[in-house]
Amino acid sequence: MTAVGDLWASLPVPTIVIGPGDEIVDINSAAEGFFNASAKSMIGLPLWDQLAVDAPLEDSLARARKNGTPLFVNDVDVGNGQRPPLQCALQIAPLQGAADHMVMMISPRELAGRMTQNHSVKSAAKSAIGMAEMLAHEIKNPLAGITGAAQLLSMNLKPEDLELTDLIVEEGRRIVKLLEQVEQFGNLSPPDLQAVNIHDVLDRARRSALLGFGASMTIIEDYDPSLPLAFGDPDQLLQVVLNLLKNASEAAGNAGGTIRLHSYFEHSFRLRRADGSGQSLPLQIEIIDDGPGLPDGIAADIFDPFVSGKENGTGLGLALVSKIISDHGGWISVTSVPGRTVFRLSLPRAPKSTLLASNSED
């Protein structure tokens, strides 16, 4: 027979035992990850000081406790004050054998949405790759001929007529640049997975941004120094972070703004795939900016190819970012309101065999 303690530790969603005065009596391992705090440090604290719920629950909880009945709350925003709230379902029920004690289970809906998002992004990526090959073959060669012809014509034109040929050449080059981006999306090689210090990647991206497109930005480092090594391709992960930093810098405009690079460990974060297999993704990296936020209506599709929040954007940058993270077996998500946009990367930690191999080489 499985011990009660084993069942408690095995619950896959954050679960809290609430005392008669709405104090925290106990939390399971998943809740420790949700609060980013140990059970020992949380016991005895007032629940509503640690848990922010976008719904008036105190009175409903009191009635459920008095009547000995369960309480179900769907689609509410739940947070802990340290990160953006998640849309969750709450299940609250009396704890059998403990008078006036209640059990609350918090079921984030983020993972289900991200599972659907990941599947659709992979399908869209395959379609975009096929289109990339077709576009490159069918358009680039004749376009080069058109551009060359326009340059030859310009040699015999009067200065006042050069505007038209210059326009042809300029637009031709713009289309070639777009096609090169599409080709990059289609020709990305599989990641060379190895043990990676994600803080080294973030620091390289930060220094590169401040010397170029992010010169007007303030970039703050907020790292967990105890974070273990990630399992990834350092060059591809650098490409991801640079793309996200560039987007944030461009959204801020000439006035500049602040970007915070935040890393932390969430040991309860685990991806469950449709085939039943699972993977732990405990390493969390957030790129947080104080810009205007994503345009209304596109946040849910922002990782799809050719969906862009920029006036002249191609919509391929974030699709490429999503493809890279997907190829790493990780997750990417975004939450955005005016003044706070958070791109969150969830990555696997390096397996012990990789760490041993790396140490032996050193």
> Uncertain spans, ≥5 residues at pLDDT below 50?
112-116
Oligomer: single chain
Read across the widest sheet, the strand sequence of neighbours is: 2-1-6-5-4-3
Shape: elongated
**Structural class designation:** alpha+beta
Rounded to an integer, what's the Rg over CA atoms? 25 Å
Query: How far do the termini sit from each other?
Result: 47 Å
Average of pLDDT:
79
- Overall strand count: 15
Helical residues, percent: 40-55%
Strand-residue proportion? 15-25%
Q: What sequence of helices (H) and strands (E) makes up the elements?
A: HEEHHHEHEEEHHEHEEHEEEEHEEH
Q: Count of DSSP helices?
A: 11
Largest sheet: 6 strands, antiparallel
Structure, described:
- Mean pLDDT is 79; it is low at 112-116.
- β5 and β6 (102-108) form a beta hairpin.
- It contains eleven helices and 15 strands.
- It is an alpha+beta fold and 362 residues long.
- The protein has helices at residues 4-10, 29-35, 39-42, 47-50, 58-67, 110-154, 162-187, 198-211, 234-252, 317-327, 352-361, and strands at 15-18, 24-27, 52-53, 71-79, 86-94, 102-108, 194-196, 218-222, 230-232, 258-265, 270-272, 278-280, 283-289, 331-337, 340-347.
- 43% of the residues lie in helices and 23% in strands.
- The strands form four sheets. It has a six-stranded antiparallel β-sheet.
Summarize the structure.
The chain is of the alpha+beta class. The protein has helices at 4-10, 29-35, 39-42, 47-50, 58-67, 110-154, 162-187, 198-211, 234-252, 317-327, 352-361, and strands spanning 15-18, 24-27, 52-53, 71-79, 86-94, 102-108, 194-196, 218-222, 230-232, 258-265, 270-272, 278-280, 283-289, 331-337, 340-347.
